[in-house]
Amino acid sequence: MRRWWRSAKLRAERDLAVFEGLVARYQQQMYRVAYRLTGNHDDAQDLIQDALFEAYRNFHRFERGTRFDRWLYRIMTNRQIDRVRRQSRLPLVSWDQTQVPPDGRDSGWESAGEAGNPAEMLVESVLGERIQQALNDLPDEYRQAVILADLEELTYVEIARIVRCPVGTVRSRLHRGRNMLREKLEDLTGDGVNR
Amino acid sequence: MKLTRDDSYYSAYLDEMLSGPEMIAVSQHLQRTPEAQKELAGLQQTVAILRELPDPTPPPEFWDKTRQNLREFARRHKRRTSLRLVVRRLITGVWHNSVTEPREPSQPEAGPSIPPGGP
Fold it and tell me: Is A153 helix (H, G, I), strand (E, B) or coil?
């Protein structure tokens, strides 16, 4: 029994090391997807932690010959759907709240301490929040499709596997999502939609 | 092939996710429809804006903290799984023993009623 216990311990340590290595390789993508899905840092961090725990618990089910990042995306999108259902609402932030406060502080961590022209950073940050808000306003299914296709550059087949729906549905969700964004961001794209 | 305004051919055309005949049909449609060209250009710009978005950065301690939490979770998970396996082994072992190993008889048995080896 002791030998069996010891070998189980070694196996678990080895699995954890492999798992940590894979996570380290994809952590930047994970954070990007989590942030764009949830719309804020706090929820993104909670989502990543939840998804990692679930992924570790099911690591023995990860299929050989498939990509770890795609598997993580699937877990993350599922967890996000669960979270939204639990909360029964998405955090809605008004346009006014997305503006930089009068004291000039920015709520985003990514801007803090970064080198660069403060005016440019401010413009980028405000624009980034504006685009994120437009993403947040999309229905969940459209947002997932847009994030996976346009930010992560996944194919329709890969997205269909992740969100478990037909490729035609992905295509339609993506198109509708992009069109909604186009309408919301028309002043940025210089595109006169439906005028 | 007829294209309608609401279908998703433009996005798929943009992503090069259509079949050859579909690509040709969309391309021809675009050549003769300025409105479609405008829509495609708008979609293209929208995608470009999204791809320009800077990567969000977590606070510096986030990944270290997450790794620690993961290790703690893994420790708890391993303990739970191991205990479950031990309990299962014990149960299976007891069951196995009770089935395969007869209890020590109080009196010496006379031997098997059927002699081994057969006729």
Answer: coil
